[in-house]
Amino acid sequence: MNPYGMNYRDAMKTTTKTAEQVRIPKVAVDEAVIVTRHGQEIAAVVSIEDYRLLANLKAAIAATRPAPYRPSEAALEAWATDADEYPTEDELRTIGRGE
Amino acid sequence: MTPAPPLRGEIRWALVPHAFEAPFAAAEWDGLRDFDGVAEYLQTTGARALVELRIRATMRPIVLLQGWDAAQHGAYAVLRTRRLQTLSPAVRASVRAGTASDLVLLDSPSAGHERVAVIAAISRVHGTAIDSTIAGRVTDDTMRLIDERLAENLDLDLGNAVERRVEAALAELGIS
Q1: Is B33 exposed, middle or buried (0-12, 13-18, 19+ CB in 10 A)?
Q2: d(CA A64, CA A58)
Q3: Angle A73-80/B89-97 helices, nearest 10 degrees?
Q4: Which of A47, A84, B38, B104 is the most buried (most CB within 10 A)?
Q5: Closest-CA distance of chain B to residue A18, Å
Q6: Going edge to edge, which strands form the sheet with B29-33?
């Protein structure tokens, strides 16, 4: 189970076969063996450590949600006094003059 | 000279309405009504009655969140701004320290006054209520910061959009 409350096997559709059922190449961490069929890449064999890392990354992305927003004290003050702000005289002179 | 059409990231003066807030004044009735009073008026006169409410509006520099191409219906999404000096010393300090995430200091002072964009103060303003003069421009970095703060303010879940953009970027690089 990872910190996102999801077993890494749940993050990807996963089936388990014994080493006797399939012929697999040996792969080390940070290595991958690409399997092709008719010249097309169809699968990759990676170490179980890299598979867990990928699955956990997918689980982390899936679990990411925005934190609920709470306005800051500063923003609440800016909002509360917002309607009381008027243009200064020098600002008013710059308005409506065209380009 | 034809006025330049509004573009995203520009700062322009605009007549900006504030949020509807009871008690409501209107041309149709004397005095003030609360929400239930307006509902009662509509029930009496018919649901299709048009109420011309009087609302508060101020002349204020705004940051355009959309350009004319994205606002072809005529109304632009904008953020109201505040003069920094009109805020309390404590708020000014938090803005300068960057600890008030929902007030963004603008890098293009208007008429010499430092201003902050108020992330919570999103408004729709019609193009006819926006000055043709460009008072300033927000840098790309600050616009990206404003976008991020808007997403936080509105609790927008951008997970799917981010995933699609990452996939598109990877496909462009031939990595998909």
Answers
A1: buried
A2: 10
A3: 130
A4: B104
A5: 30
A6: B29-33, B24-26, B53-54
CA–CA dist A41, A55 (Å, integer): 20
CA distances from B162 to A7, A36, B92, B128, B157 (A): 24, 30, 33, 35, 10
In angstroms, the CA A18 to CA A33 distance is: 18
Length of chain A, please?
99
Q: For residues B24 and B56, give the distance between their C-alpha atoms in angstroms, rounded to a whole number.
A: 11
Mutate: best of B59, B113, B122, B170, partner A, most A CBs <10 A = B59
* Nearest C-alpha in A relative to B162: A61
Handedness of CA B84, B86, B92, B95 (dihedral sign): negative
Output DSSP code: residue B92.
H
Q: Does A92 touch chain B (CB under 8 A)?
A: yes
Q: Residue A48 pairs with which residues in a beta bridge? A: none
Residues 6+ away with beta carbon under 8 Å from A55: A8, A9, A11, A12, A14
Residue B35 has phi, psi (to 5 degrees) of: -60, -45
pLDDT attached to residue B12: 94
Is the minimum CB–CB distance between A94 and chain B shorter than 8 Å? Answer: yes
What's the ipTM? Answer: 0.76
Q: Which positions in chain A touch B102 (Cβ < 8 Å)?
A: 71-72, 74-75
Question: Which residues from B are below 8 Å from A61, CB to CB?
Answer: 159, 163
Q: Number of residue pairs across A and B with CB atoms under 8 Å? A: 112
To the question of pTM greater than 0.80 for the whole model, the response is no
Q: Which residues contact B56 (CB under 8 A, 6 or more apart)?
A: A83, B17, B18
Are A74 and B156 within 8 A, CB to CB? no
